Amino acid sequence: MFPILKDSPLFQGLDQPTIEALLERASYTTATFDADACIARRDTAYSGLMVILRGSVRGEVTDAAGHRRTIDNIAAPQLIAPAFLFGGYNRLPIDVVANEDGTEILTLHRGGLFEMMQDNTIVLSNFIDIISNRANFFSRKIYALSVLMLTEKVAALLLSAAPTDTDTVPMDKTRMADELNITRNALEQTLAELAKKRLIELSETQIIILNRTGLESMVAPQ
Q1: CB neighbours of 186 closer than 8 A, spacing ≥ 6?
Q2: How would you classify the pairing of strands 95-98 and 56-62?
Q3: What is the pLDDT of residues 33-51, one digit of tens each?
Q4: Parallel, antiparallel, or unpaired for β 38-40 and 95-98?
Q5: Stretch 163-185: mean pLDDT, rounded?
Q6: What's the pLDDT at 182?
Q7: Measured between alpha carbons, how far is 144 from 88 in angstroms, rounded to an integer?
Q8: Residue 189: per-residue pLDDT
Q9: H-helix segments, 120-170
């Protein structure tokens, strides 16, 4: 019965007979999906822990410009959004999409999983570790995504402020920060990042665009 679960972080440290005995007392379902099929949509109630038995999935969000962004790729036998199973807000923060044909998902219903953790302290300990590790991972991931989106906004502002017949923009950090609704510090960090990539050059009075094509590629629809 699902031998891959022995390698799942939820059942780490348990042998196959123990896992099978736990599943026999739990309530679960399985389903198979084709590539690019939506397994679960953002903001839907999350009443059962999804475990990938075969294949892989990706978590997607739609940004303010309507572009689809992949937040994470998860392969069997990992868990999907375990931190959102319990607590006061049991809704998925992302769309879950299958990456390949034959992606198989096992869903452990919340009550059954809770009983499983009560029956076996190893499962309980594993679940707590998983939530902690995923929370740390997504904190870093969201921060990186936020920086990327801010960089795109600054690139778009520079392109709009510098028509194709000129490559200079007046250095007015207060105006630029206000227009983007960000702090001067965030703007300065982003400009420094673009300068480090040799896309722009900074001086006391102006910003010089060194690589217009590079800036345009950052704001082009993916």
Answers
A1: 150, 177
A2: antiparallel
A3: 999 999 999 988 898 999 9
A4: antiparallel
A5: 83
A6: 86
A7: 27
A8: 92
A9: 121-161
Angle separating helix axes 212-219 and 121-161, nearest 10 degrees: 130
Give the list of residues 6+ apart from residue 43 with CB closer than 8 angstroms, or none: 91, 92
Q: d(Cα 89, Cα 46) in Å, to the nearest integer?
A: 9
Question: Which pair of tokens denotes residue 202?
Answer: 């900074």
Q: What is the dihedral of CA 42, 45, 46, 47, to 10 degrees?
A: -160
pLDDT single digits (tens) 59-93? 988 766 677 878 778 999 999 989 888 877 788 88
Mean pLDDT (the chain, rounded): 88
pTM of the model: 0.64
Other CB atoms within a 10 A radius of the CB of residue 96 amount to 25
| pLDDT grade for 140, boundaries at 50, 70 and 90 | low
Q: Using CA atoms in the order 176, 178, 183, 186, what is the torsion angle rounded to 10 degrees? A: -30
CB 189 within 8 A of CB 126: no
**Which residue, among 69, 70, 220, has the nearest Cα to 152 in the 3D structure?**
220
- CB neighbourhood size of 154 (10 A): 25
Beta bridge partners of 33: 103
CB 12 within 8 A of CB 126: yes
Residues 6+ apart with CB under 8 A from 207: 158, 168, 169, 170, 171, 191, 200, 201
Helix/strand/coil for 86? coil
